[in-house]
Amino acid sequence: MHIQHDVQTMSTDDTTVYEAVAAVSTQRRAAHVADVVHMTGLPEETVRRSLAFLTENGWLKTRGGIYILGPHDWEVDY
Asked: In CATH, what number does 7-69 get?
């Protein structure tokens, strides 16, 4: 199954959170909520809401409180 995402459905906070997880993934590690809060400066509640949205829509995958990139159709350059 090929997933196609419409990035236009992402809010500014969602994009910021996604980019933080993507930046952590360039270091070949998964992101924790605390990492994303620290990197974005967003309130923890906002980060958790965005992580849930991004996970529900397949942009991120989660396991045991860590987040990694899900399949995507665009490139992220860092």
From this structure: 1.10.10.10
